[in-house]
Amino acid sequence: MKNIDIEKYSSAFTLADMEIFVFPELMYSLLLANIMSPIIWQWRDDKSFKKLEGKEPHKKLMRLRQFIMDEFEFNLDLETWGLTDKSTELKRFENFLTEKAIAESNALFGYEGDKYYYDVDIRKHFGLDKYTTDIIPYWKTETVEAMYAFRHKKGYKAGAGECVSLSTLYAAAAFIVCGIPLEDIYMILTPLHSQNYIDINEGIITNNRRLVTKAMWFNGTETSDKAQRALRNEQITMVAHSSGLVHCLYKDATIDRAEYQKFLGKLKNYLYYPLEPLGVANFLRSKGQYQKYFQFCRDCRGNAQFVRAEKLFSYEHDSNFRICDSTHEKLLAEVHEEDFSNHEYPGRIRCDQFKEYMGKKKPDINTEAGRNELAKVLSDYIPDSEKFVAELYDFLHIEPRLPSEDKNYINGEPIKISPDMTREQIIDYLKSIRDKNTIADLAFYAYRDMEICDWQPFIKSAIERSPVSIGMTKDKSIEQAYQWLLDMPNESIYDNKRLAQPDEVANYGRGDGIEKAITLANIIHKREPNKEIKIKINNENVSVETDKKYEFQSLKGFEKNIMI
User: What is the pTM of this model?
Assistant: First the structure.
């Protein structure tokens, strides 16, 4: 293989955060690998999904959300896949991106985001604050097989994965289980997060294990506020789609220009909410400090009664009903009589009158003049009305920082697969375009199909980037490490002729004989890097030969000789 290719292709096995940032094709390749996996196709046989056959995709997505919530945990343990160092990784990527570009855009190399992230100490939240030296974690993305295999890892009761793993899982499952075309799924990556925009109804965004509709996005709850963080405060690194991708740092874009423009319009609409009573109520829910300036009114047998806004919002906590939506009157009916007053509260805005004002005057807060007008109207009630209106505008209008449209658009080979195709038809199709579509070619590496992939990148990744297996055996002799591997169940987390990397063997405590042999070779090579190591694979018999011979049993059916 060409030297410039082997880093990219070996990265398809590691799938580290920094590798996907430098080689953005890997993101969609992982999605395709998950689509080829038999695991998600088996979900369609689940009774709860069978009941929804013929139903609209939105209902299937809501069921999928609960399924993923039940089956997978969100894993934020940055050291799951061990540690590396900045100098080593920067050396790997120096032919692709500058150190400055990586540091300004990647969380592991110092990125902290804008002022918002400094205020909430985001690096501490993610556990990045302790990496103040050259040492950094491998922040790896998992295949669906590796996500499922977390069940075998101590401390986990179900599958697990970090945000990029969960976003690719959601995209694959939306396609396979919910029948949503890939053309309607856009993958969005920022330095600290990964989400999907799914183009159904008014749009749905996946956020870790959750799904967020437009109504949920703007409901002002703490969960929704957290879901907004990445798109509100981060530069979007890339957008990946079945037609290709666009990256913030690369001039060339393979995404179809019309598709990208369509996405920009759809996302802009999703991130905008009009100035209307429900939007204002949602804002007050999010910014509780302003509730003290408002009051709500109800008619009680012909007489007006009033309740403080903060009191009515407190009733929401234990109720299924919400302020200003179709259940507003039912919420008012739950309020105790002693919490109502027969007199207006002085110095507070009456929400019914404010609603009437908005309906008649229709102030346009998208313009400076409109914001000034609204601030003037509210100035008798809210001390710093300009700040209130500015924050209201920011709440209702998010301007994402997307990769520029000013790119050199290269017409690549789009991925043309349909939810109506079988898994076998999809695999055959992807095989047929490997020679003209790098993403499809890389998908088979991420899928770990070693029957039709070059082994050199696999071995390179295994030997250079498997620190967990090294760490777990640091106090063992080679003989003890060999026995440790023999004692593990002789089963791979991947089916057929697909292989796990050494750190997957170590983390999940299981592996086929070939996988165990490569893991042992990695351990030996780390201790004696100049020693020649031979791995001989003869169907079921596998051996690692150095000064001694170590034997394993395999069910993968390969014949191969490997020299390290």
Answer: 0.92
